[in-house]
């Protein structure tokens, strides 16, 4: 039996694909999803339709030459070649040209719902509520297994450990997610929280679609306490972001937005205490000086001093009178003698 190694089989498949002239010069139309430019300058995304998905790559050199680059939710007509990426064992479409072919279905639905809810006023700034300054009970609506939950709990424990955290677990992806999110929002509001964090990590347009559901949007609008939406990454926007009272770029940022920093508060309290101590000391010192001045003035006008002064003068006059009488008597005796 002549067995292939994994690498050899992958190379063989790659050679078959690359030897096919049709796959080396092929046009494909589909909707772009999960589009992420890498730090290297390459672009990675998925091209999809109702029946399949296709992993795609645009190398940095090709991307620099393109006038239009792919964007999530939009339909594109692309040209390139199909080959195999051996380390991952998958075939990929290497794109060297792309041009818009219209909005994708999900993007069209997103824009339609966004326009309708905006017309109803659900995005109006006037209905946005301020966040509580020092919330003591914080609600979190996310998946119990989500990395976002760990990030949120770490931030809350570091910044504001005095707060009680109430979790309303829910699915954050899939067809069942919208109804569960709606129920979780209602449950956590009944728990008496002061603010709600609605969160999940990043993902493709499809992964985040539960947060573009009209039921979720109306549940956020109906929530009796402020809602902070921290869904996806900074570049991700959902309908929930527009309806929420505050939009955070990430789940961790949402946790920071709803909490004061306990360490900063302690420093502020210490500073206020020092300033108050100095102010009281300065005021007491001022009162002491004023009291000393008044006491000095009182001593100057006190009757005891005047009496003492008069008594001293009387004693002095009495002494002078005694001396004068003695002198007169001596003179009188001298005359008699």
Walk me through this protein's architecture.
- The chain is α/β, with parallel strands linked by helices and 337 residues long.
- It folds into three domains: 6-103, Nucleic acid-binding proteins (OB fold (Dihydrolipoamide Acetyltransferase, E2P)), CATH 2.40.50.140; 108-260, Rossmann fold; 302-337.
- It is 47% helix and 22% strand.
- The chain contains ten helices and ten strands.
- It has helices at residues 6-19, 60-65, 105-120, 147-159, 177-190, 214-222, 239-243, 251-257, 262-301, 303-336; strands at residues 26-37, 43-48, 53-58, 74-85, 90-103, 137-142, 164-169, 195-200, 227-231, 246-247.
- Strands 1-2-3-5-4 form a five-stranded mixed barrel. A five-stranded parallel sheet has the order 7-6-8-9-10.
- Strand 2 and strand 3 form a beta hairpin.
- Helix 4 runs parallel beside helix 8 and helix 5 (177-190) runs parallel beside helix 6 (214-222).
Secondary structure: elements and pairs:
Layout: H1 6-19, E1 26-37, E2 43-48, E3 53-58, H2 60-65, E4 74-85, E5 90-103, H3 105-120, E6 137-142, H4 147-159, E7 164-169, H5 177-190, E8 195-200, H6 214-222, E9 227-231, H7 239-243, E10 246-247, H8 251-257, H9 262-301, H10 303-336
Parallel strand pairs: 3-5, 6-7, 6-8, 8-9, 9-10
Antiparallel strand pairs: 1-2, 1-4, 2-3, 4-5
